[in-house]
Amino acid sequence: MRAGLRPAAFVAGAVMIAGLTGCSGGGSDSGKTEVTWFKLTETASTANDTINGVIENFEEANPDIDIVVEERSTDAHKDALRTTLGTNGAPDIFFSWAGPGLGGEFIEAGASLNLEEYYDEYGWAERFSETTMATVTQYGGYDGVPYTQRGEALFYNKDLFAQAGVDAVPTTYDELVAAAEKLKAAGITPIQFGGTVNWHVMRLLDSILEAKCGADGYQALVTKEASWAEEPCVTETFTEFGKWTSDYLNPGFISINNDESSALFFSGEAAMALEGDWFNQSVRDNGMDESTVGIFPFPTGTNRLYGFNENNYITSNSDHADEAAKFLDYLTSEEAQQELIAAFGSQSVNINVKPEGGSELDAAWGPIFENAEGVYMNNDQNLSLAETTEYWRVQNLVATGELDPANAGAEFQKFIDQQ
Question: How large a percentage of the chain has pLDDT more than 70?
């Protein structure tokens, strides 16, 4: 279908990033085939070490293949993909989030190889759940191989909750606001965010949108079946969001990044963090006593879990697709996934791999996933790149008090209508 297409670079006139390894250069000086993989740098250093170990195991079993990893932070990774895919600087494999607004951008541009023959060869369709397979087949082919299934929830410091007199985990949105008020009154920062990376604060906005508009309303808005300018729940959402950013977030949040804000949670200066299951390992890596940390879903009232999937894709102009597929087969095998699940998250994309031997904090994710009645996805995956950029602009104007929340929905809808 899309196999064999050689798409144009995503940014017209974009300058190639210096030092990137092209995927069409053949083997290395050692005579081995080099398979390049553009991936995200994991938040937890332990997770990066584990991935490196998995790669070493694969290379030992396949001495004719070298996996050459280039990893970057979130925004730098997105930029690298947009400037290299479709050129001779593209990797053989690239990581991306699976939603239409991120992975879908590259798939629709023809940068992803249709992997149907490899799904047949390796039996991958039977390896993954219906939920993760839906991210692969949603564009009409077999694009990508599931990498992670992520859930996001509120981490909280049990000691700070007790200190503020919050004696029960909030189960409704109103109870969450009440807890934030108690924490603030006790001189404790209720929740931490870093505003220089727009997607971090977006998590709060998305979750309030789910709480105020409900599951059906949320989906209608992100699929353009409802107008952001006409739904009263949108104004309620931005009004609540404005209250959170003015009253409950760490002072100066707009000028720091997510790593800097996370340090406030690790040091006991902020009571909550809206993070994913990958954050468990970050808690440990940063020396926090995990017995003092709990997790609960953002109480939206819909019972849907905030989360997303991530896939690895083989580029349509890769000269080493067979070797790349062989590596992705190992990466999602029971052997590799059993290694990865301990340091990488709480759920494996391989349906035959279950968590075992984890801590109480790790075990807390099981019921969260099991009790979820569907997923509401991060809006930078639901929306197109241009729409996401505008969503963030409106978000930041409300967060800094420069836009009346009553006008925020209409401002965003105006942009959508102009596309």
Answer: 92
- Domains annotated for the chain, with CATH where assigned, are 33-150+308-363 (3.40.190.10), 151-307+365-418 (3.40.190.10)
Tokens of 132: 């993760």
Choose among 161, 120, 388: nearest CA to 271. 161
Cα–Cα–Cα angle for 172, 178, 181, nearest 5°? 150
In the 3-class helix/strand/coil scheme, how is 364-375 assigned residue by residue? CHHHHHHHCCCE
User: Which SS3 state, helix, strand or coil, does residue 349 take?
Assistant: coil
386 residue type, one letter = A
Q: Measure Cα distances from 228 to 32, 99, 220, 235, 416 in Å.
A: 54, 20, 10, 9, 9
52 pLDDT higher than 60: yes
Residue 27: the pLDDT is 59
CA 165, CA 382: separation in Å to the nearest integer?
Answer: 38
The pLDDT of residue 13 is above 50 = no
Band (26; pLDDT cuts 50, 70, 90): low
Within 8 A by CB and 6+ apart from 224, the residues are: 416
Computed on alpha carbons and rounded to an integer, the radius of gyration of the chain in Å comes to 22
* In contact, 79 and 303? CB cutoff 8 Å: no
Residue 28: per-residue pLDDT? 58
Longest dimension (CA), the chain: 65
Q: Which residue has the tokens 């050692």?
A: 30
Q: Confirm if 69 and 123 have CB atoms less than 8 A apart.
A: no
Range in 17-26, 49-58, 95-104, 215-224 with the lowest mean pLDDT: 17-26
DSSP letter (8 states) at residue 18:
T
Tell me: pLDDT of 74 over 80.
Answer: yes
* DSSP character at residue 128: B
How far apart (Å, rounded) are the C-alpha atoms in residues 112 and 375? 25
Report how far residue 193's alpha carbon sits from residue 185's, in angstroms, rounded to the nearest whole number. 19
Total residue count of the chain as it appears in this document: 419
Question: Which pair of structure tokens corresponds to residue 186?
Answer: 């006790």
